[in-house]
Write a structure and sequence with these properties.
With 1314 residues, the chain is of the alpha+beta class. It has a 7-stranded antiparallel β-sheet with strand order 6-5-4-3-9-8-7. Strand 20 and strand 21 form a beta hairpin. Helix 2 packs parallel to helix 3, helix 2 packs across helix 9 and helix 11 packs antiparallel against helix 12. The chain is elongated.
Amino acid sequence: MSAAEDSSKAEDTSLTEDTNQTDEESPSRNLNDSAGSSTLVEKTDATSPEGNAAELPAADVSMTEPPPEEASNQGGETVKQSDEGSRTQKEVAGETGDEEDGATNLKEADSPSQSEPHQHTEPSGDDDEADEKEAANKQVSAISVEESGVSSLSHSSTLQTTPQSMPRTLKINTDYQELQANLSERLERALGTSAPLLREIFIDFSPYLTKTLLGTKGQELLSSGLTAIKMGTSAISLVMLLCSQEWQISLQKHAGLAFIELVNEGRLLSHSTRDHMVKVANEAEHILNKLRAEDAQRHEAFHIICAEADLNTREEELTCDRLITSARRRELSVASKLVDKVLNIVKSEQGPWASDSAPSSKFWKLDTWEDDARRRRRMVPNPIGSTHPEAALRAAIEHGENEDAISQAREEFHEMLKLRRQKSESDVLIDDEMDGMDSELEMTGPVSLSTPCSLIVYGLAIAGTLSITKYEVFFEWDEENSDNKKLDPKVLKYIDIHGRWHMQEMRAVFTRRHLLEKRAIEIFLINRTSVLFSFADLDTVRKVIGLLPAVGIGVKYGLRASRKISLASPRQLFRQSNMTQRWQKREISNFDYLMFLNTISGRSYNDLNQYPIFPWVLSNFTSDTIDLSEPSNYRDLSKPMGALNPERRKFFEERYEAWDHEHIPAFHYGTHYSTAAFALNWLIRVEPFSTLFLNLQEGKFDHANRTFSSMERAWLNCQTDTSDVKEMIPEVYFLPEMFWNDNQFKFGSKEDGSVVDHVVLPPWAATPEEFVRISREALESEIVSGQLHEWIDLIFGYKQQGPEAVKATNVFYYLTYEGNVELSNIKDPIMKEALQAQIRSFGQTPSQLLAEPHPMRGSQMGVTPKMFNPVTSDACMSLKFWSNSPVIHISANVFPQQPSPSVVTVLMNKHFAVNPWNSNPTPLSSQTPPKPPTDQLQSPAGNPGAPAPTTSEQLMASLPLALDPVLNQPISSQLYTRRTLGDNFDERIKLSRSNFATSIDNKIIFACGFWDNSFRVFQSDSGQSLQVVYGHFGVVTCICRSEVNMMHDCFIVTGSKDCTCMIWQWLGQKQRIYSEQLSSTNNPVAQATLTGHTTPIVSVVISAELGIVVSASKEGPCLIHTMNGDLLRGLAPPSLCTDPQHLLVNREGYIVTIYNSTVICLFSINGRLLHHVDTKTSLKCMCMSRDSRHVMTSGDNGIVSIWRTHDLTHLYSYPRLEGAVHDLALSFDHRYVLAAVSTGCVVVLNVDFTKWHHDYQRRTEAKLPSAVAPPIPAAAAPPISTAASTAPETEESTASVPISGSAPVDGGENSQPQ
């Protein structure tokens, strides 16, 4: 080894020792300065071997090391600066890290005095790496001290000098401390930004650098210096560590390649970090965009919600405004009706404004009131009615009438215009008065649902809005709707376009079809009317039904009340109902059953396109007489109308076979059996159908040849015309007014010159009433009952569609059947409107109810086998009261449903009795007699050969009526007081049958005639007065009860000396007269007050089913009112009949009146006098059979007579009773008639209507004279004695025993059509 090398090694060793010594002298400074400077390594190359020490100028600084205390102070002063630099460097490093990836070497800058730059060895790379190295060198050069003259200074404690440098023993000059402070400050300032980076590099990559930076002996350099690097904050300590010999050697050997790999890994990490940051940035941008989109959506949703809220507010305001307007118009309509009501009363013949001149013509219209059988029979005044002279004039001109007819029509037209002008002026006054009124909207709660709909009335669709609250339903028509503007104002006058209905008024809800789509509902109301609404779809129908009461389809069809039943299909209703079984058992009539089928299949009075269908029954319209037992007089119900004529049937079948069309299926008939035009043609003489017909015919009547004018001609057209296969409507069987031209319409003259007026009836019918009655009897005949099921198969059953319809020649145009077209799926408005017009014109087939043959009706004989059992005796029994006071009132509420049927009797002495009734008395002949006891009763008087009953119990079991058990007590008993009505009756009036009425369950007695102008409610069990009702201003002279509903609720009508009648509501469950409003004295208020009489009321009757009240006043008229108080008309009796005394009304619309005590008059429900007969005897009472076929009368002569109702033909008279008869009552089963006799007894007589009817027919056929006198001569029929055997003195009445020597027999049950 050379001397030079030895000398170099010696110098290196001395340098290392000096460095180690310096490190030992200032350990704290090295620890502090070495912390937090790792990030700079990424930007520097490995230190070159020649660059271990830097030279300092000799004139600037002394190489003598400062004392440890001063060095320590310097280190302490630079800590703060290092910390600040470290924090600043970390912030800068985070921003500029991506820009400094290209640096691969870090080399210390040489001083300006250094002759050569330091060389270092590193792998040669491409141009990019060279550029990166050059950029790194530039960055490192920027870190060097700028004006110090020091090219490479690591730390003052590690500086080494060459042998030619100044001696170490040189002393510090006077400026040494200042120079040292300036040097430290410069170093800290120069390395302040890179030292923290180097510390971070050493700390972050310590696992790798520990294995890479190894000393000369293989020891780990970084592990020993890592603590100092972490703890130190001074840049000088870090430089001293890196400039030490051991570190320099390790860096020269290992750091080059390691740093290159490290930089490459850093580059890859940087790229991946950049990609990750880009990905994170993209994701952040996506999230931000999503959030922005969500914000935009929320903003848009907020705007939509605001718009909807604003729209809802506007709609609510419009709804409120519409409801207020509707309420105001409704009030105007009500006010107009009230004005018409008052004017009708005061201008009537009995009113104060009655004209002395000839009465002007009065117009009538058909009311919408329906009875239990869904018959609309009540005609009411029509204030807007006319003879339609403008239609007659237009028809006369277009049809080429003669000049006289045209001139007459023109004169009538001008007269009508004059009257209409006067009427409009009075209406304007009413409108002006209403304009000044404030209308209040009586909304009962918020609107639960408001939906567009159409009100279907007479086939017209009126667009509007249906609003449903918790308690009420409102309909408001849309004035702005284009279709509504096209409606004829004359038609709208007949329609209530501003309806309001209370939830409690609804009694049935049906799902209906409209234009063959199931999207409508029909609501039946408690006032016996109905309304039909059509909606957009079936879902709306479900919502509406869900808000309506769960009443189902009512209780009369045997189905439970639920909304599910209301939504059921017609076929489901048919299968679940019990009406078919009831029809087979003859519990209901053919008419009722056909109406049931029409109702559940969707037929409605409100839709002329779906009007109820009834069959042609009779085929004989030419004979003078008609025998309803002759089958040749009937139509074949097994064939449709088009197949009755064989020739026409052949024509239709050939059309079906020859039909070939791509889209339209084959059919037999191009027209239908039920269309709106056919219904209007039948009812053209009845308003409002006359106005509707004119609306259909563009304001003119049809040609007289095509107008319905004759029943014979109508039948012939249906047999010969290929375009006429129509069936009948139900009005043919109950509305004779459809054949009368009461409104005096001018239909013109036919080609033969005959004028069309009233309908020409068959010769066997003298009047329309007789034609309707005979037609109805034919409908209920056995011949029709035996084949009616076959007609049902054609219209509602399995022959309606399919192969069976083809076999039966019963196929109609395809648009008449449900399901062949879905209008809701058609988007083209023109095509949709065309199909709707075709459906309206072609008619609509009812919903199919069954797919199998309909069962036949049961035999009459099988249902009532006892109908032909003859009654051998007239008298049954007599019940005698001990007081001998005349029985003035009797009521027999002995219905089979009653738990304890009884007969209530009232005596003249104000006592009453509740006598038990035996519905099934057992004849003595069928009882097994036991051994005769010692106290056996005597045989009935007058019949000594009859065996006496063995016991009193057997006798009572054989009689239908028994004595009130309370009256069997001694007179002194307190129970006796339970059968008196008190002594508060007015002594000025004579009590009669009209002063009392009983409830349906016999628990309540209504009595009137009290001096305080009241009527009272008594409990029959205890005789206690439950309620005293005031309302009249005079003594109440008569009282009557209506029919009851399922809850035993009914109406009570009272007549008074104040010339008025009042209608009250009775609640059966509460057993009180009830009203929603009370008077100032907490007294119930009458629902209606009926006026028009000028003398005291003597008799009054009410029919809730017909909705009428008939009242008679002393020597005054008989008036008919509605239950709302509207005066309909006065009855026009025959001449010399001026004093009506007794009234009777039944469900068939017959009104029977007794005038002048002797004359019986029969009127129709619409006031037409049908028949009258003078009996020449004083009549006090009468009653009518439940089927309305027979009337029973009696009076002072004690003879009970039987009359046929429809023509007042006398059929039979019982033998005379011993005393005048004050009242009559008929048992529910028509087996007994009970007579209240003036001798203080009740006589029970056997009834046999069938026998009397056949006896009359035999007498008629034998051409025997029919007299009013009893058919049994008086000598052959001794009077029926009411005397009885002696009774104990402690009893009120005698025992019940047979009378007049006739044993009690089992009376036969009467045969009656339902």
